[in-house]
Amino acid sequence: MLDKAKALLQPSRRSAVPPFMVMDVMAAAARLEAQGRQIVHMEVGQPAAAALSSAIAAAQAALSSGPLGYTEALGIPSLRHRIARSYREWHGLEIDPQRIVVTTGSSGGFILAFLAAFEAGDRVAVALPGYPPYRHILSALGCEPVGIECAAEARWSLAGETLLREHGARPLKGVVVASPANPTGTMMSEKALADLIRCAEDAGIVVISDEIYHGLDYAYPATTAARVSSDVIIVNSFSKYFCMTGWRIGWLVVPQALVRSVERLQQNLAISVPTLSQIAAEAAFDGRAELEDIKHGYQDNRRILIEGLPEAGLNSFLPADGAFYLYADVSRFSSDSFAFASRMLEEAGVAATPGVDFDPIHGKNFIRLCYAGSRRDMTEAVTRIGSWLRG
Ligand SMILES: Cc1ncc(COP(=O)(O)O)c(C=O)c1O
Q1: Cβ < 6 Å from ligand 1: which residues?
Q2: Taking burial as the number of CB atoms within 10 A of a residue's CB, which of 2, 256, 312, 368 is the most buried?
Q3: Rounded Cα–Cα distance for residues 238 and 282 (Å)
């Protein structure tokens, strides 16, 4: 009986995706905290701030005003219009609200986008280092993620000619780009992004642009791929700039030709996105000034790290154009970033994510530090890392 159940309950091969190591670091940090240690958290990529008061007030009003039913699969129309309007306000672009799809975080957006654009077996390029779930979601859906190593000298971004070289070796069906990027915090200039998109589209490669860190740009304003082409699938989210990670809400800008497919997928996979989160998200657009204050806090944190880390001993990183990450080279100290991050947590009480999460090959030489925490945490981290590295 037991053997029969065991045979039945074999996990599928497609479910064998690697874990997200940052979660293991979080668990280890929590164990130390349970023993009374004070840990500076720089491992998880999420804002320390809560959702805006406008968003919370709208959610509270909705909770007390009646039942919260399903919404249309593509999202509440007024939210879709509000998102479309934000492209006019932020980028001077007219986007048809019919092309906006509300999703359960950008994570839900990726599933819809990949299913709508790719067949099982399709090869899809992703930059390494890069956000690990791109690769893992693709492989769970039966696609083949193709990691392309990028170099620090190229600000860790994928160039059109590199993409075409890979395409020439074995055809690609898609490519995922992100600017600002996780884990490096680097950005692509408008020209670099436009070149990549044109190379890809001329070769018949579908571009998916992850714009989740838009709004969090310090070097220069991030360019939306919608400015370059209306055939790109854009993925975005209320998680980062809007500080709404736990509300699980994001959006897609979908090329007209895919809208109905995405709608049918959403109807079947989710019915609709949580109504409360949609109502709160629409109200979050009313708090731009509060959001800009939070962004200034990140800017300050970034300065503290850029000035303080070299003196502390970590002197090799790019000055992070956007998002809230620094990707620091630790190869002077270790060629095993997982062991380095574990020791830094244990001995210095600073939690960071090992680069191997983002790049299985060269990530062993890097750690990612998230600076979305408090200013006090940043100064404390610099002090602790400094005294730890000095021994
Ligand atoms: C680059 C990038 N894309 C997507 C996500 C997923 O975010 P969410 O599903 O909360 O929108 C994250 C989360 O950290 C990320 O860093």
Answers
A1: 45, 105-107, 131, 178, 182, 210, 212, 237, 239, 245, 250
A2: 368
A3: 10
> What is the helix (H) or strand (E) element at residue 373, kind and residue range?
none
- Give the global pTM: 0.95
pLDDT score, position 100: 98
- State the average pLDDT for the chain: 95
CA-closest residue to ligand 1 atom 14: 45
Tell me, what's the pLDDT at 5?
67
Closest ligand 1 atom number to CA of residue 250: 11
Instruction: Give the atom of ligand 1 at the shortest distance from the alpha carbon of 45.
Output: 14
String of b and e for 91-108 (b: at least 16 CB within 10 Å)? beeebebebbbbbbbbbb
Residue with CA at minimum distance from ligand 1 atom 7: 106
Burial (CB < 10 A; 0-12, 13-18, 19+), residue 333, is: middle
φ, ψ at 293 (rounded to 5°): -60, -45
Rounded distance from Cα 238 to ligand 1 centre (Å): 10
The reported pLDDT for the residue numbered 19 is 82
Which of 164, 132, 162 lies closest to 150 in space, CA to CA? Answer: 162
Centre of ligand 1 to C-alpha 51, Å, is 16
**Ligand 1: centre distance to CA 212 (Å):** 6
